[in-house]
Design a protein that fits this description.
Layout lengths: L3 E3 L2 E3 L6 H19 L9 E7 L3 E5 L8 E5 L4 E7 L4 E5 L11 E8 L1 E4 L7 E2 L16 E4 L22 H6 L9 E4 L5 H10 L6 E8 L3 H13 L6 E6 L5 H20 L3 E7 L1 H14 L13 H9 L3 E2 L8 E9 L8 H9 L2 E5 L1 H6 L11 E2 L14 H18 L7 H17 L9 H12 L11 H13 L3 H8 L6 H19 L10
Length: 529
């Protein structure tokens, strides 16, 4: 027999077991709690959709909503407030608008737009709201950070002096990037901009740099290729991939770079070095233009709103090298911009060039000639310069840039068939070999020691007697020497020490002898005359 419990008491029974007594006790507690319960009304602002557009909604009835505050529609679709007008709020949608309609209720969530951050994001593919896009299961995040955050103050920063090695000879030697710098990558379509970025990520293996790759408006296949390449090279273990695809709403594409920066700032604030790549900000600017026009913001040049400069400057100013009092972390930014018909003076490229600390320009002409990576040394510049290079680069960097710049001018002049003197022919021969050395396959990074010693050999004419097709083999011989006979000098360069005159002489003598033994004494016959 059991005891039967009711809301008004118990019906006693002669035989009651332990389970019945437990149930009786629980019901008594519940009855007392219900008698003492006094509901507390909670006020909530609930608005109504007045107008619905492609990616935006105009909502009335939310007088206290804040800028960038999250709101939720009846069907669970999320958005955030962008326009705060006296009578209505312009809301940017973060999801599809097919199920939405005018008259739907909208409620405030009373929290600003944020994104999950933490080491658990490494190796994962997510969208700007933190939704998982890969098959890795639940996201293991440590904290949530607001997407929009103020940039570090001037007093919190230190000078950019530590190099961020890309492994690309043309960049590390001639256009060096420092940790905490903002270096723009720009060029026409299909010139290798993303390849430069992924090479840089891949080269951070064992360098303790956490990377965030932000794909804005890219094709799914393109993002899948980058993800597969990084995974194959072991670089996905220290990389977060954030994706707002071309099919996604413009709101997701707009917030993606800011969310990626918040993820990277977590590592910087914990004293680590971080790298964030925005691929690309041309699509980001177009997404913001679309949202602005739908929200009836006044159009300006090329229909962009007046604050188009500000949306990128407030993003890139968050990159910094923090001082030791702030933990000493750094955030390096490599924004990517697409130009049309090599027009560097277009509106958005000009804006980004004025914001960043230099630019790497990729020329379609060099691409068509097979000179890869297609870095135009004459147009590219780093405003940090040699301060972000290891000391050994000083032996070669200036001489390489000067020789190559003179070669490009001489080569154009020599096409007219004018008879050339011996000095000019020698400059042309040297320049052609510098160009051969600057060529580099993707995912074949070079260490600082390999770069310095190779260019040292070229500058001193050790490659002048090699035919152009032998230059690659000559470079391999230099790399082999660095692993064997010259290992001590390799370590000296990598440790940031300067090379003495004796070190330089020993390098040149050893390389010259090895090239002679391996390739023989052959005069160049590539038509230099």
């Amino acid at each position: 027999m059991m005891a039967i419990a009711t809301a008004t008491g118990r019906v006693p029974m002669s035989d009651r077991g332990p389970l019945a007594r437990t149930i009786d006790s629980a019901l008594d507690s519940l009855h007392r709690a219900l008698e003492s319960y006094e509901p507390e009304p909670r006020l909530a602002e609930v608005g109504e959709v007045e107008y619905l557009g492609e990616g935006i909604a105009r909502v009335s009835g939310l007088p206290s909503v804040q800028a960038d505050e999250l709101v939720e529609f009846e069907d669970g679709t999320m958005g955030f407030a962008l326009n705060l007008d006296p009578d209505e709020v312009g809301v940017v949608l973060l999801g599809r608008s097919e199920e939405l309609s005018a008259g739907m209720e909208v409620r405030r969530l009373e929290r600003l737009l944020d994104v999950p951050v933490g080491k658990g994001l490494l190796g994962r593919v997510i969208d700007p709201t933190g939704e998982v896009l890969d098959r890795g299961g639940r996201l293991d995040w440590e904290d949530r950070r607001q997407v929009e955050r103020p940039a570090p103050s001037i007093m919190a920063r230190s000078p950019v002096q530590r190099p961020l090695q890309t492994g690309i000879k043309a960049i590390d030697t001639l256009i060096p990037i420092g940790r905490g710098q903002r270096e723009l990558i720009l060029g026409d379509r299909q010139t290798g901009k993303t390849a430069i970025a992924t090479d840089t990520i891949a080269n951070q293996l064992d360098r303790n740099v956490m990377c965030v790759y932000c794909a804005v408006g890219q094709r799914t296949s393109a993002v899948a290729k980058v993800t597969d390449d990084l995974d194959r090279l072991g670089a996905l273990d220290y990389t977060v991939i954030m994706v707002a695809e071309a099919e996604d709403p413009p709101g997701l594409q707009f917030i993606a770079p800011y969310a990626a920066t918040a993820v990277a700032e977590y590592f910087m604030d914990h004293g680590q070095d971080a790298l964030v790549i925005y691929d690309d900000l041309t699509v980001h600017a177009r997404a913001y233009r679309e949202l602005s026009l739908l929200l009836r913001r006044p159009p300006g040049r090329e229909a962009y709103p007046g604050d188009i400069f500000y949306i990128h400057s407030r993003l890139l100013e968050r990159s910094a090298q923090l001082g030791s009092d702030e933990g000493g972390g750094s955030l390096t930014a490599l924004p990517i911009i697409e130009t049309e018909a090599q027009n560097l003076s277009a509106y958005i490229p000009t804006n980004l060039i004025s914001i960043t600390d230099g630019q790497i320009y990729l020329s379609p002409d060099l691409m068509q000639k097979g000179n890869l990576p297609a870095v135009d040394v004459g147009t590219s510049v780093s405003r940090v310069g040699g301060k972000a290079q290891l000391p050994a680069y000083k032996l070669v960097a200036g001489q390489v840039r000067l020789a190559y710049s003179q070669f490009e001018e001489l080569e154009s002049f020599a096409r007219f068939g004018t008879r050339l003197d011996e000095e000019t022919r020698q400059s042309l021969a040297r320049g052609r070999r510098v160009r051969e050395v600057l060529k580099q396959d993707q995912f074949s990074p070079r260490t600082p020691a390999q770069q310095v010693v190779t260019f040292l050999a070229v500058n001193n004419g050790l490659f002048d007697d090699l035919e152009l097709e032998q230059v690659g083999r000559g470079e391999e011989i230099v790399h082999e020497l660095l692993e064997d006979e010259l290992a001590d000098l390799r370590d000296k360069i990598e440790d940031g020490q300067e090379l003495t005159d004796d070190d330089r002489d020993r390098l040149l003598e050893t390389i010259d002898q090895a090239l002679e033994d391996e390739l023989g004494e052959e005069e160049g016959s590539d038509g230099d005359a």
